Amino acid sequence: QVLLVESGGGLVQPGGSLRLSCAASGSIFSIGAMGWFRQNPGKERELVAAITSGASTNYADSVKGRFTISRDNAENTVYLQMNSLKPEDTAVYYCNAEVVVSTGGSRVPLGGPRDLWGQGTQVTVSS
After folding, report:
1. Environment class of residue 107 by beta-carbon count within 10 Å: exposed (0-12), middle (13-18) or buried (19+)?
2. pLDDT for 41-54, tens place per residue?
């Protein structure tokens, strides 16, 4: 019922920047924490950045000072601004959200919170 749609991936040169977006749509009662993960073939999916509903943030050590996570609660959207990109940042990036769904725009929650994932967007950093 609720879908996370990612956009903003692409090919950039080392030192370049990209801005990823992830918008949640559907019958949403509330959204808690949101985050970005990345994964390469044969590797585990790793947390890149996370943000709570109160805008408290957490970053992987490898991206601190270069990436910034933010959210727009009115638009149910989370962003990842990626600056000073390095080849090792190359991966498929997935957004994640803790979502409580509702039915048909109802203000009544349907069940408890669930973890939802975006479809993934490729980020390639190469010269």
Report:
1. exposed
2. 999 999 999 999 99
* Distance (Å, whole) CA 66 – CA 78: 17
DSSP state of 60: -
How much of the chain, in percent, has pLDDT values that exceed 90? 95
Beta strands 10-12 and 121-125, pairing class: parallel
> Which residues does 21 contact at the CB level (< 8 Å), separation at least 6?
6, 7, 8, 77, 78, 79
Sites in the chain below the pLDDT cut of 70:
none
Cα separation, 65 vs 84, whole angstroms: 9
> Is residue 100 classed exposed, middle or buried when 0-12, 13-18 and 19+ CB atoms within 10 A define those classes?
middle
- Please name the residues in contact with 22: beta carbons below 8 A apart, sequence gap of 6 or more: 4, 5, 6, 7, 34, 36, 77, 78, 79, 95, 97, 118
Q: Are the beta carbons of 37 and 29 closer than 8 angstroms?
A: no
List the one residue out of 16, 3, 2 whose CA is nearest residue 124: 16
57 within 8 A of 71, measured Cβ to Cβ:
no
